[in-house]
Amino acid sequence: MQAMEIICRTTAERRRDTLERLGSERDIWVSTSHPDHGPHQVPLWFLWDGQAVWMCTGANSATARNVQREPRVRLALPDASDVVLLQGEAKCWPAREVPDDAAEGFTGKFGWDPRTEETPYLYLCVAPQTVRAWRGVPELRGRVVMRDGAWLG
Known about the structure:
By secondary structure, this protein is α+β, with helices and mostly antiparallel strands. The chain contains 3 helices and 9 strands.
């Protein structure tokens, strides 16, 4: 493995790169917590609508059960060399009640419509309150690019 030279980005550059990745990537890691069983983490497909992350999971999954008890979640894009972490509260939408624009966007991106499945699905919507982005140790300082739901830089 070869080390990469890291050129520190400004907050505005990190924000731009983060928004680009949110708009183009497919998978996101979702971390939830159960009061008795502790942390739970799974990868899910996601849609970024410009304001929030939309994901879908089985209505009876551990992820769905956890967010209904404790809505605070952490999300992570899957690249340890280009870290993007989001934190916020998940709002739950049964598949048949999800807003049309979110459902159509999700279906358009993945070619799959959870609203048509026989088993029940739950959409999770997370409007991030905090976003951190960094590439390696040189970028740890200034890694917060969103605070209290407002983009910095």
